[in-house]
Design a protein that fits this description.
mainly alpha, 299 residues, three-stranded antiparallel sheet
Length: 299
């Protein structure tokens, strides 16, 4: 799949007119139907008017190739963060509502439990000592201050997930740093939860978060790894279409450049050919200096 053309089919072509004549000729072509401009994302020539003009250094840099695939992965991570935000946010709201109606809910629970108790006793099931009822009664035993603190903690965690989602979806550099740090900070908590009670969902979540942190740190060159921010910016610049065209044109320009002339002897140096039986040898006679015999320098 050509991700560059797919991106243009969804977002449109990116046309730009550089003010430099030598660079403008690389992205412009005159056809029988009119002037065509080369898209900076997919590289195709399009019969349309550039949306902007200016120096080549200020040309837009739409994600291409690896950068475009990386943006897709970032948005998948952002969708997963949005799912967490919704789930944790609903949990925070539920805990907050529970803390405000704790006693009323406890009375309602006990009244309904008395209805189901004879049915459970008929089938030999001890409803009062079941794990579900024990867990629910444990929640009713919590103080309201504890429940409010839990609701606030869940709300903060939900906001963190939302900030991660926004930063990753917009492919912002700060979003990549924020997501890497926030995800790494919660890894010890997830590991502790696995030691207490391991489930397939918890294991899958931990593995996904570890992979996400490693991917962000390594591929995005965060915290100075693999050259850091400068190397990452250089990689993005090298993937831009204008940079690629200039790089391809450089070897051809070097090959077409005239050869440098060979250095000529000084004007006060005389070239003499000495005939011998062997092949001719060219020597350079240096002019005599005062008080010194002339020297012969063999070329």
């Amino acid at each position: 799949m050509d991700w560059n053309r797919r991106g243009c089919s969804r977002r449109g072509h990116v046309l730009y007119e550089p003010v430099e004549p030598d660079i403008r000729t690389l992205v412009r072509a005159d056809t029988a139907l009119g002037t065509a401009w080369r898209c900076l994302r997919c590289g195709d020539f399009v019969l349309d008017v550039p949306t902007s003009t200016g120096p080549a250094a200020d040309a837009p840099r739409p994600p291409r190739g690896k950068a475009l695939r990386s943006r897709l992965i970032m948005r998948l991570l952002a969708v997963e963060r949005v799912f967490r935000f919704v789930l944790v946010g609903l949990g925070a709201f539920a805990v907050w509502k529970f803390s405000n109606s704790q006693h009323a809910l406890q009375d309602l629970f006990e009244d309904n439990l008395s209805i189901f108790r004879p049915v459970a006793r008929h089938y030999g099931y001890d409803l009062d000592n079941s794990s579900v009822v024990t867990t629910i009664r444990k929640f009713f035993s919590y103080r309201r201050s504890t429940l409010d603190a839990a609701a606030i903690a869940l709300g903060v965690y939900a906001l963190i997930e939302l900030v991660e989602a926004v930063g990753l979806w917009l492919a912002k550099r700060w979003g990549e740093y924020f997501a890497a740090v926030a995800t790494a900070l919660f890894l010890p908590i997830e590991i502790y939860e696995l030691t207490e009670h391991a489930t397939k969902f918890k294991i899958a979540t931990l593995v996904l978060n570890v992979i996400a942190v490693l991917y962000l740190v390594l591929t995005k060159r965060l915290f100075g790894l693999r050259g850091g921010d400068r190397a990452y910016e250089a990689m993005l610049n090298s993937e831009s279409l204008i940079s690629e065209m200039l790089a391809d044109r450089a070897p051809a320009a070097v090959a077409a450049a005239p050869a440098e002339p060979r250095p000529q002897p000084d004007s006060d140096t005389v070239t003499v050919t000495v005939p011998t039986a062997a092949p001719e040898q060219t020597v350079l006679l240096s002019p005599p200096d005062q008080g010194r015999d002339p020297g012969i320098v063999q070329a």
